[in-house]
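Why do we care about 3D structure at all? Because function follows from shape, and shape follows, mostly, from sequence. That is the central idea of this module. The next example makes it concrete: a single protein chain, its amino acid sequence, and then its structure expressed as tokens.
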Amino acid sequence: MKEYTKKDFPVSDIRRFLEPGPIVLISSTWKGKANIMTLGWHTVMEFSPSLVGCVIANGNFSFEIIRKSRECVINVPSVELVDEVVGIGNCSGDAVDKFDRFHLTPVQGTEVSAPLIRECFVNLECRIADGRLINAYNFFIFEVLKAHVATALNKIQTLHYRGKGIFITSGELVNKRHKFTKWKDSPNF
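And the structure:
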């Protein structure tokens, strides 16, 4: 897997890495237990302070970890991590160490306790900015406190989920339907 050299990046400009909505990997930790989840629905809500909204289903193992710790890292994977993205989405962190199973490297951030994923080309350290919509809608509003972005961005392709195991990237179809264990088109994946 490719590793990226990164530089500090203005959090007010992170929208260019999130629009029009690539698949992200959300990493979190609570009481020594780290987890990763695959997430397909998020939105940039404000530029400064940099706010990102995410729907995380309350049945997801990450839901309580993030709600209790009040922080996470939004990691943006490239197309080369498609099998890891699917695999992470198909298992639960309460039974599996996803960093170990998918050979991903946790890296300590500077603003939050949740680990960054070294193999992702963007890492956004986040803290809950507003929790009023969590119980009613499973909607988390995060403030991006620190952004880490790969220095070489040419030819990096992101994944965009189309439903039922189909992804697109720069117009090319990536069919991973045979790897899915569930056929749910929920907003959290």
